[in-house]
């Protein structure tokens, strides 16, 4: 299923079954961007396009939500876009990310690229891996 079809099948009605427990999708399932910067850049651009489409679709969602992109410095296959809300699975909403400071950047080209996408970028270290969370403060609940 392509991402446009996937997005069109999401339930933003606000009904009892309309919730998101870290719903997500990837743009580079096979991790080809790990081998080639241009492939990774294209996959990140696809995530940003999906993000922008979701911003329009979720605009009238009547529940609180979070919409964000996660980029892992060392693994493009894990780069993904997330929707998160209150959900019946567990009490894990909202996600709060504490910005990591003074972190070593191994992929300076990646950092420079995502810093120029026009979104808030919050770096975070999890399991010794640098992750970047990208979001818009004006969409849903910010991280």
Which of globular, elongated, flat, extended, rod-shaped describes the shape?
Answer: globular
Residue fraction in strands = 15-25%
Helix and strand pattern = HEHEEHEE
Count of alpha and pi helical runs: 3
How much helix is in the residues? Answer: 10-25%
Got a strand count? Answer: 5
Stretches with pLDDT under 50, minimum 5 residues: none
Radius of gyration: 15 Å
How would you portray this structure in words?
It is a single chain. The longest helix is centred in the N-terminal third of the chain and has 21 residues. A hairpin with a 2-residue loop joins strand 4 and strand 5. It is built from three helices and five strands. The protein has 143 residues and is of the alpha+beta class. It is globular, with a radius of gyration of 15 Å.
Short characterization:
The protein is of the alpha+beta class and 143 residues long. Helices cover 24% and strands 22% of the residues. The protein has helices spanning 3-8, 37-57, 108-115, and strands at residues 23-26, 65-72, 80-85, 120-126, 129-135.
